[in-house]
Amino acid sequence: MNKNIQTTTNEAVFLKNEIADDQIDLRELFAVIWQGKWLIMLITCLFAAGAVVFALSQPNTYKSEVLLTPANEEQGGGLSALAGQFGGLASMAGINLGGGGGADKTQLAIEIMKSRQFVSQFITNHQILADLMAIDKWQQMDNTITYDADIYDANAQKWVRDVKLPLKPKPSLQEAYKAFIEILSVNTAKDTGMVTISIEHQSPYIAQKWVSWLVKDINKEMKDRDVIEAKRSTEFLNTQIQQTNVADIKTVLYKLIEEQAKTIMFAEVRDEYAFKTIDPALVPEEKAGPKRALICVLGTMLGGMLAVMLVLIRHFVRKEG
């Protein structure tokens, strides 16, 4: 019995010693940090200086934004009414009038605006590739743009950047799309449904211009899509009229053609088709970035933490050795 008690006691003492060995003495840590204070200060100062240099080297950027509200889709009301009134007769003719649901056209317009096809067409139509991919500085005094000579020769209007295949000196639309999406922001307020579109660029004038173009182009795109769809629907309905002799079904078809005509007329007379402008884009006077003070603080903190880790790791490596 005494032998078992003695064994248990020895095991407890051994475990206690093991735990004590594994525990880190805070006084030892502080002593190690204090001994390496000069190395910590040196590394921290180097990181702080690097953060300052990096922050000062970043050009100012300006954000221009526009506040929009979804346009009332008045042309959709007629089809919804017809669906309730003549839905049964139309189904007899093999025509689906729909139930007024469908995709949210506001969200559809936003997704189209951020799509590769729309952005690529936007870049091509407005010829903004150089201002997007090769800008070096914006001169505030005379509102001029200078381009990076290693990327774009402005005098010869030629791309000269040195890249590896499959990339080419002139950026592809895929590269341009990635760059454009990084400076584009589209936000929808959940409570009001208002849409805010913003562009951030080194030139405040370019930012304002691009935002205005975006609103104009997306309205035109949505308008053109609905007009094309209405014209195709009209052609189909005229064909159906010729193929049926049932008077009630012809009444439904004529009503549908009337609604398509209203859609086309509605699109032709209104420029703000998908979105109405509440607060137009302005040329911003205050910069949006970079946040130089934050960069300096984070750089200094990072340097300090890395320096402390380096000192501690060096101490425990020497201790184990």
From TrEMBL:
KW Flavoprotein (keyword) present: no
| Polysaccharide chain length determinant N-terminal domain span | 22-125
Superkingdom in the source lineage: Bacteria
Q: Where does the protein end up? A: Cell membrane
- The answer to whether the entry has keyword rRNA processing is no
Keyword annotations of the record: Cell membrane, Membrane, Transmembrane, Transmembrane helix
Give the residue spans that cross the bilayer. 38-56, 293-317
**Residue ranges annotated for the Tyrosine-protein kinase G-rich domain, each copy included:** 275-315
Signal sequence span per UniProt? none
Annotated InterPro entries: Bact_polysacc_biosynth/exp (IPR050445), GNVR (IPR032807), LPS_length_determ_N (IPR003856)
Q: How does it sit in the membrane?
A: Multi-pass membrane protein
Question: What's the protein called, per UniProt?
Answer: LPS O-antigen length regulator
Q: Which organism is it from?
A: Shewanella intestini
